[in-house]
Write a structure and sequence with these properties.
Belongs to the PRAME family. InterPro entries: LRR_dom_sf (IPR032675), LRRC14/PRAME (IPR050694), PRAME (IPR026271). The protein is of the alpha/beta class and about 475 residues long. The chain has a domain at about 10-115. About 35% of the residues lie in helices and about 15% in strands. It contains 17 helices and 18 strands. The strands form 4 sheets. The protein has a 10-stranded parallel beta sheet, with no helix packed on it. Strand 8 (about 185), helix 8 and strand 9 (about 210) form a beta-alpha-beta unit. The chain is elongated and about 80 Å long.
């Protein structure tokens, strides 16, 4: 029989106070700082609307994090908070106790509430919510614009009720409210609604953008104009599914898209999934990059020799830590192009992904010397390439001495397949012995392999 933890005196005091809402409201001004968060949680979840309003107007912290507490079917408490903010915004000077500068609607405030509710013994929240020391100075604070932080995940064609309500609320108070967003993710929404939302957001607050929509190239060009205003973006993931259609102004759209990279002065991570519009003109984008990149991912598309050449010549990849070209068919490429590219990044590269690239034995053998010079490499993946046992042995001889290489993902050698494409039990057993020579643990994503490997182990066990 488990013993229940008795309620803390602090919790009992808060619950008692909320039973008499009039008393709770009158007590807010003199409420100890440590009582504010647990009492606020009780009032929010218990929908004590008037108490909530009073507490917001006397909030003794810089930040009020509500993202983890918002319950979409019941927006009453959130509306009460916004109504209380209206009262604050209408005042020329802040109440003497109120320190509120940021309303945080991101899912980042759980630590804050856990600490103050007694559920955690760790320090203050990592999101910068440091409690302000309580004092009773009568000095009043001038009103500064209130910042409202929100995570934008635009996953529906139309705006949901909460976002519609918030956008309308911000629009009516745009002189005193800054709507900020650090992470923007667009999966499915009309460009008209996207522009409506983003027109209310401080675009220079956005640090990460992820787009995965079905668009015409012209639509992507329209969005790129907005992207160019997000000057503090550090991470960009573009994976648009482009509708196949002949567009007379296609080259003009490409220029409109790539030219916006000139305005991204803080870009560090660039991920382009299936960027078919860049085939043969990757240099247009590379010339517009303004900062050294940490990670580049160009995947599942076709590139030309000139594209790969321009990538290797780009000065902004010299400090690259991650390079992902998975799904880019390299079968017909001269291995010298890949050699030159790896030479440029050898001193800093930590992750290299060349999965499903159609790399041949000859190409891999040509790049082995430069690959072994990637002294910082930690992860190497070559899955999905049809390679022989012979070249795999040579590869492992080159990588065995690499000090930081800890994750290696290789395809099953082609000798392990029968003429009909099935995995051969006997050859798999040889592959296991081969791996042991290099002190490797075999893992593969080949269908049915784990069952076959188990069968080999059982057979070997039954023989002993």
């Amino acid at each position: 029989m488990s013993v229940q933890t008795p309620p803390r005196l602090l919790d009992l005091a808060g619950a008692s106070l909320l039973r008499d809402e009039a008393s709770a409201i009158s007590a807010v001004e003199d409420l100890p700082t440590e009582l504010f968060p647990p009492l606020f949680m009780e009032a929010f979840h218990g929908r004590h609307i008037e108490t909530l309003k009073a507490m917001v107007q006397a909030w003794p912290f810089v930040r009020l994090p509500l993202g983890d507490m918002i319950d979409m079917p019941h927006v009453g408490p959130l509306q009460a908070v916004l109504e209380a903010l209206d009262v604050l915004l209408a005042q020329k000077v802040r109440p003497r106790r109120c320190k509120l500068q940021v309303l945080d609607l991101q899912d980042t405030g759980q630590t804050f509430w856990s600490v103050w509710s007694g559920a955690s013994t760790h320090g203050c929240s990592s999101s910068g919510m440091v409690p302000v020391a309580e004092h009773r100075s009568m000095t009043q604070q001038p009103v500064a614009p209130l910042e409202v932080f929100i995570e934008l995940r635009l996953k529906k064609r139309t705006l949901d009720n909460f976002l519609t309500y918030l956008i309308r609320w911000v629009e009516q108070r745009k002189a005193s409210i800054h709507l900020c967003c650090k992470k923007l993710k667009i999966v499915k929404m009309s460009m008209e609604n996207i522009m409506t939302v983003l027109s209310r957001v401080q675009l220079d607050c956005i640090q990460e953008v992820q787009v995965n929509c079905t668009w015409h190239l012209s639509t992507l060009a329209v969005f790129a104009a907005l992207l160019g205003q997000m000057g503090n973006v550090q991470r960009l993931l573009l994976s648009p599914i482009l509708v196949s259609a002949f567009e007379e102004l296609e080259q003009q759209h490409v220029v409109q898209i790539t030219s916006q990279f000139l305005r991204l002065h803080h870009l560090r991570d660039l991920h382009l999934e299936s960027p078919s519009f860049l085939e043969g003109c990757l240099d247009q984008m590379l010339r517009c990059l303004k900062t050294p990149l940490d990670n580049v991912s160009i995947t599942n598309c076709r590139l030309t020799d000139s594209d790969l050449l321009h990538l290797s010549q780009c000065p902004n990849i010299r400090q690259l830590k991650g390079l992902d070209l998975s799904g880019v068919t390299l079968t017909g490429f001269s291995p010298e192009l890949l050699q030159v590219l790896l030479e440029q990044v050898a001193a800093s590269l930590q992750e290299l992904n060349l999965e499903q690239c159609g790399i041949s034995d000859f190409q891999l053998e040509c790049i082995l010397p430069v690959l072994s010079h990637c002294s910082q490499l930690r992860t190497l993946s070559l899955c999905g390439n049809l390679l022989s046992m012979t070249i795999m042995e040579k590869l492992l001889c080159h990588t065995t001495g690499m000090p930081h290489l800890s994750e290696e993902f290789y395809p099953t050698p082609q000798e392990s397949y029968s003429p009909h494409g099935a995995l051969h039990l006997g050859r798999l057993a040889q592959l296991r012995d081969f791996a042991k020579e290099f002190d490797l643990t075999l893992r593969t994503q080949e269908p049915g392999y784990s069952d076959l490997y188990q069968l080999i182990e059982q057979k070997n066990g039954s023989k002993t």
